[in-house]
Specification:
This protein has helices at residues 26-43, 50-75, 88-114, 130-141, 145-164, 171-178, 195-216, 228-247; strands at 12-15, 77-80, 186-187, 249-250. By secondary structure, it is mainly alpha-helical. It folds into 2 domains: 12-114, no CATH class; 125-250. Helix 2 packs across helix 3, helix 4 (130-141) packs antiparallel against helix 5 and helix 7 (195-216) crosses helix 8 (228-247). The protein is elongated, with a radius of gyration of 25 Å.
């Protein structure tokens, strides 16, 4: 008997602009793909009983989300097989996709080991500051790049409000007040009166302004905001700001001093 049933439900693939860098473990990915390929091929062959067929289908469905992620990253597409069992065409397309993914995985390892001439700089979203990744993770992994950046910026705004107690301020006004070089609420390094301190404090304030003025107000409202690479760069900027704010010392503003601006 055949274990995969009848009908044809082809996989759906949605183009997306880029993928994560090859920082994942090669052997782990190869083992997962090979195991899944064995299960798919077993579905098309003779199965001794209904119970065995059900077990094979359950095993495929349990592994499918991970395989979709691996294949999608390697193929530079977002793959969705919908955990549905169709006929021969459905199984054949999955087998072809997994075999191709194994080939890409092997080729990328060989190129990295034998052909790469420049150091590879890898940025993994899940290594960003925890404020950023906790807010952005769900949207990022579902391919909503621009929305992930916007969500991360909103969390930074909220965290800064709570840390400074300035719930009456938001966005660039909050950054200019909290990180002011003249009378800050958050000091990013010890104030020793040096130009280095002044540069660090004012630079942090301008970074905060940039995050809210560009990555939220501009990038979040234009078509390019959905581009993965630009969004990743935006998350990196938001992460840098988050780390500065998270690690900054909370200080009381000098009475009568101007708290906003450089």
């Amino acid at each position: 008997m055949r274990a995969d049933g009848g009908g044809t439900i082809p996989p759906a693939a949605i183009e997306c602009p880029s993928v994560r860098s090859m920082s994942q473990d090669y052997e782990w990915a190869r083992e997962r793909l090979t195991e899944y390929l064995d299960l798919l091929e077993a579905l098309g062959g003779p199965v001794p009983s209904e119970a065995a067929a059900d077990a094979l289908q359950s095993a495929v469905m349990a592994r499918e989300p991970t395989i979709e992620r691996i294949v999608g990253d390697l193929e530079r597409t977002r793959v969705a097989w919908f955990s549905a069992f169709g006929g021969y065409s459905w199984r054949a397309e999955q087998i072809q996709a997994v075999r191709r993914a194994l080939g890409i995985l092997e080729d990328q390892r060989d190129l990295r080991d034998h052909w790469s001439r420049d150091p590879v700089i890898e940025v993994d979203p899940d290594q960003l500051h925890e404020w950023v990744w906790e807010a952005a993770k769900g949207l990022w992994e579902s391919g909503h790049w621009g929305e992930a950046v916007e969500a991360a910026v909103k969390v930074v705004n909220s965290k800064t409000q709570r840390k400074t107690g300035r719930l009456d301020l938001s966005g660039t006004d909050l950054m200019r007040t909290a990180l002011s070089a003249k009378n800050p609420l958050l000091r990013v390094r010890e104030d020793d009166g040096s130009e280095t301190y002044k540069s660090a404090q004012e630079g942090a304030m301008h970074l905060g302004e940039a995050v809210f003025m560009y990555w939220r107000n501009v990038l979040g409202h234009e078509p390019g905001g959905s581009d993965r690479q630009r969004a990743l760069e935006g998350l990196a900027a938001v992460s840098a700001l988050s780390r500065l704010i998270d690690e900054a010392d909370l200080v009381a503003p000098t009475p009568g001093a101007e708290a906003t601006g450089p």
